[in-house]
Design brief:
Pathway: Amino-acid biosynthesis; L-histidine biosynthesis; L-histidine from 5-phospho-alpha-D-ribose 1-diphosphate: step 7/9. This protein is α/β, with parallel strands linked by helices. It has 2 domains: 19-37 and 260-352, Alpha-Beta Complex (Aspartate Aminotransferase, domain 1), CATH 3.90.1150.10; 40-257, Type I PLP-dependent aspartate aminotransferase-like (Major domain) (Aspartate Aminotransferase, domain 2), CATH 3.40.640. It has helices at residues 7-11, 40-49, 63-72, 85-96, 113-121, 163-172, 226-237, 246-257, 259-282, 304-313, 337-352, and strands at residues 27-28, 80-83, 104-108, 125-129, 147-151, 177-181, 202-207, 220-224, 285-287, 294-299, 316-317, 319-323, 327-333. The chain binds 4'-deoxy-4'-aminopyridoxal-5'-phosphate.
């Protein structure tokens, strides 16, 4: 605390990022990164961009990347916004689009950055509990509100909402903006991007951090109709007009174009997820049905905190969640096959011991 802090900084409760360990050789299944890394074509593009041109500012509009993303969806670059990780894209959406006189709605439990942005921008929020099966119940959002944000699949549960449910949410109030945070959509959920042309109250946010193995490059994007994108650009240009550097624009553009690499890796991760879910169930865990690159699971007998600590002592890092409304869960990212085997073997040893 300093007497120079503004009142808003004094009351902020900042997000606590998952551990990025300094110790080597840990099996890192705690922050939902890809175990496979980026497309070799992305690495080649980054290497090529890492030259004398770095003395020049990047393209402030990141046009090459926006065009690559738009082309995939039959949209124009004006319907795509890019930022420094989807966290930054979301931050701009909270500041520029989600602050209203009426409250913002989001599920409890969901991405824990949402309340942080609400604190930062003074946004009133109402948290809507999940149902007894940890699902988002769209009918609960049919109430006076300024906007809605929800992850699909939800995080950290991993449970996806079908597209028809997103459409129902959009139809509840055409004057209310719905932001769908699709950080994990490529692992088996249906994307709402196809709904954008017919819905001016929809913004879809995605990231390069998970299915494209580029968490370290910090690139995310939003897709929506032009007026929404222009709103985000107004915020961006009042904050940092060069959010993506030259390496990020080059690497992300090449990664987005390499559909084969992306498809192969996301399918591999989905297959490993099913194997992990079965293995965990055999060890006495209840595993929620996941459409993400992680599973959310709780053990009938053993406390999540103890299991997470015992795994860490054996070199495996997972994330522990405990909240009154949801109980005591582990969120386990899907690693390589060898990492998944190691996780199951260590858990089995812990539970036997
Ligand atoms: N949304 C959700 C639901 C997430 O879990 C994450 C990752 N922590 C993000 C957005 C942000 O990801 P990034 O900033 O790496 O794009």
């Amino acid at each position: 605390m300093s007497r120079f802090w503004s009142p808003i900084v004094s009351t902020l409760k900042p997000y606590v990022p998952g551990e990025q360990p300094k110790i080597a050789n840990l099996v890192k299944l705690n922050t939902n990164e890809s175990p496979y890394g980026p497309s070799p074509k992305a690495l080649a593009a980054i290497a090529e961009a890492a030259g004398d041109a770095l003395r020049l500012y990047p393209d402030p509009t990141s046009m090459a990347l926006r065009e690559a993303i738009a082309a995939r969806h039959g949209l124009s670059a004006g319907e795509v916004f890019v930022g420094n990780g989807s966290d930054e894209v979301l931050a701009h959406a909270f500041m520029g689009l989600l602050k209203h006189e009426k409250p913002l709605l989001y599920p409890d439990i969901s991405y824990s950055f949402y309340p942080v942005y609400c604190g930062l921008y003074g946004i009133e929020a109402v948290e809507i509990p999940l149902d007894d099966a940890f699902r988002i119940r769209v009918a609960d959002y049919d109430r006076p509100s300024g906007a809605v944000i929800l992850p699909n699949p939800n995080a950290p549960t991993g449970i996806a909402l079908p597209l028809a449910e997103i459409e129902a949410l959009l139809a509840q109030d055409r004057e209310r903006l719905v932001v769908v945070d699709e950080a994990y959509v490529d692992f088996g959920a249906e994307s709402a991007v196809s709904l954008v042309p017919a819905h001016d109250n929809l913004l879809v946010v995605q990231t390069f951090s998970k299915s494209r193995g580029l968490a370290g490059l910090r690139v995310g994007f939003a897709i929506g109709q032009r007026p929404l994108i222009e709103g985000l650009e107004r915020v961006k240009d009042s904050f940092n007009s060069y959010p993506l550097d030259r390496l990020a624009i080059a690497g992300a553009t090449a990664a987005y174009r390499d559909e084969a690499w992306f498809d192969d890796k996301r399918r591999t991760i989905m297959a490993s997820r099913e194997r992990v879910a079965e293995g965990l169930a055999a060890l006495g865990f209840e595993v929620l049905p996941s459409s993400a690159n992680f599973v959310f699971a709780r053990h009938g007998q053993r406390a999540g905190a103890d299991l997470a600590a015992a795994l860490r002592a054996r070199g495996v890092l997972v994330r522990h969640f405990a909240k009154p409304r949801i109980g005591d869960f582990l969120r386990i990212s899907i690693g390589t096959d060898a990492e998944c085997d190691r996780l199951l073997a260590e858990l089995s040893a812990i539970l036997e011991g």
